[in-house]
From TrEMBL, chain A:
Source species of the chain: Stylonychia lemnae
GO terms under biological process: DNA-templated transcription
Entry's Gene Ontology molecular function annotations: DNA binding; DNA-directed RNA polymerase activity; zinc ion binding
Keywords recorded for this protein, A-Z: DNA-directed RNA polymerase, Metal-binding, Nucleus, Transcription, Zinc
Protein name in UniProt: Dna-directed rna polymerases and iii subunit rpabc4-like
Coiled coil location: none
Family: Belongs to the archaeal Rpo12/eukaryotic RPC10 RNA polymerase subunit family.
One of the record's GO cellular component terms: RNA polymerase I complex
UniProtKB/TrEMBL annotation, chain B:
Recorded GO MF terms: DNA binding; DNA-directed RNA polymerase activity; protein dimerization activity
Matches recorded under NCBIfam families: PRK00783.1
DNA-directed RNA polymerase RpoA/D/Rpb3-type domain ranges (all copies): 43-316
Family assignment from sequence similarity: Belongs to the archaeal Rpo3/eukaryotic RPB3 RNA polymerase subunit family.
HAMAP family on file: RNApol_arch_Rpo3
GO cellular component: RNA polymerase II, core complex
Keywords: DNA-directed RNA polymerase, Transcription
Biological process according to GO: transcription by RNA polymerase II
Protein name per the record: Rna polymerase ii core subunit
InterPro entries: DNA-dir_RNA_pol_30-40kDasu_CS, DNA-dir_RNA_pol_insert, DNA-dir_RNA_pol_RpoA/D/Rpb3, RBP11-like, RNAP_Rpo3/Rpb3/RPAC1, RNApol_insert_sf, Rpo3/RPB3_RNA_Pol_subunit
Pfam families (alphabetical): RNA_pol_A_bac, RNA_pol_L
Length: 70, 325
């Protein structure tokens, strides 16, 4: 990624301005009140656009999941 | 060295002997011997005679932790819309006993020639259940369908009358919930995880010895005291004979060495009149199978493993010049 560079502590520094200019990643959640899907990004208010409910659930991972039966 | 002269599972097993070739073991025991007291579909009771506590205990430990069986070990979840989370269901599936009569034809997965999974070290199953037409549905071991023709299937229990019992309940689904999983069973033993243990219980006890000096007790104690003596034993080892007005030993096998009778005798100045002890050369085993193997099969397999271990130890000791006898 060209908008990342290492800072003095060896950590990746993300420039705030660069972050704003990029399209924010949106994640779909399920509303706990009405059950409709909502796309939320990192900074948005946790509030359903349809019913105003403030509790959301994560969607299930779509890939095959493996578990050890122990 | 202990060497089994004959161990056949069904017929020749009843008086199988495993003993030293010289006729007498290291501690001057006679030939070790097994006597079967009771054998049913899931339980075996037997006596192990003329061995040391260490041998009996190693047999017990091998029965519990080293007899290999099959169990579900890997769960691939494709769909799970039930109320229970994936890990929870996976754990439950792992604990289901699978009939492992053909366990010998499989390899342990870490000793198999294949890189991850093959027909020699794993058995595949499918678990697919949808609750569409009812309010609630039970998912049980009948929903586990084998994907190969390997003879490994979930245990079907049969009761005393020979009637099949209900299959094991795994979980419940409510309307419109569904479950779709691939299951992989692997070979293992109880050392790795208790789900591979072939037994529900495997207990071993020394046979108790109870002796009373009838003359002393029935002379020095009055009748009330004698009745008190009989009543104080929590296991009802003693009985009061009404005709003779005397204390008798009813069932010494029930004794749990609680020494209540010894204390009573001491309090009444009858120190030597009551003796309780345990036989050091006789062990009574109760082995209860989970249904994965027949109980007699578990014991004979355990004896084979014990023999192999002792043989291994013997050859290694000889290699380093230690006398293995």
């Amino acid at each position: 990624m060209d908008n990342t560079k290492m800072n003095d502590n060896g950590l990746i520094d993300i420039n705030e301005e660069d972050m704003d200019s990029r399209e924010k990643p949106k994640v779909t959640y399920i509303c706990g009140g009405c059950g409709k899907d909502n796309k939320l990004d990192k900074d948005s208010v946790i509030r359903c656009t349809h019913c105003g409910h403030r509790i959301f659930y994560k969607k299930r991972e779509r890939k095959l999941l493996q578990y050890e039966a122990r | 060295m202990y060497g089994m002269e004959q161990i056949n599972t069904a017929t020749g097993f009843a008086n199988a002997k495993f003993g030293s070739s010289k006729g007498q073991g290291a501690k001057g025991f006679d030939e070790p011997e097994i006597r079967i007291l009771e054998l049913s579909k899931y339980v075996i009771k037997f006596e192990l005679l003329n061995t040391d506590l260490s041998v009996a205990n190693s047999l017990r430990r091998i029965i519990i932790a080293e007899v290999p069986t099959m169990a579900i070990d890997l769960v691939e979840v494709k769909e799970n819309t039930s109320a229970l989370h994936d890990e929870f269901i996976a754990h439950r599936l792992g604990l289901i006993p699978l009939q492992s009569f053909n366990v010998d034809q499989f390899n342990l997965s870490d000793q198999c020639a294949c890189s991850s999974m093959c027909a020699q070290c794993s058995v595949q199953f499918k678990l697919h259940a949808v609750c569409s037409d009812r309010d609630q549905m039970e998912v049980n071991t009948r929903h586990i369908q084998p994907l190969s023709d390997a003879p490994i299937i979930p245990v079907q229990y049969v009761n005393d009358k020979g009637i099949e019992e209900d299959p094991i309940l795994i979980m419940k689904l409510s309307k419109n919930q569904q479950l779709d999983m691939n299951l992989v069973a692997r070979k293992g033993n109880g050392k790795i995880h208790a789900k591979w243990s072939p037994v529900a219980t495997c207990q071993m006890r020394k046979e108790p010895i109870v002796e009373i000096d009838q003359d002393k007790i029935n002379r020095d104690l009055d009748i009330e005291k004698r009745k008190e003596f009989v009543a104080l034993c929590p296991r009802e080892v003693f009985a009061f004979n009404d005709y003779r007005n005397a204390v008798e030993i009813e069932n010494s096998d029930k004794c749990i060495q609680c020494i209540e009778c010894l204390r009573f005798a001491q309090a009444n100045n009858l120190e030597r009149a009551v003796k309780i002890a345990e036989r050091e050369d006789k062990f009574v085993f109760t082995v209860e199978s989970t249904g994965v193997l027949t109980p007699e099969d578990i014991v004979s397999r355990a004896l084979q493993i014990l023999m192999r271990k002792l043989y291994e130890l013997g050859t290694q000791m000889k290699k380093y010049g230690v006398n293995a006898d």
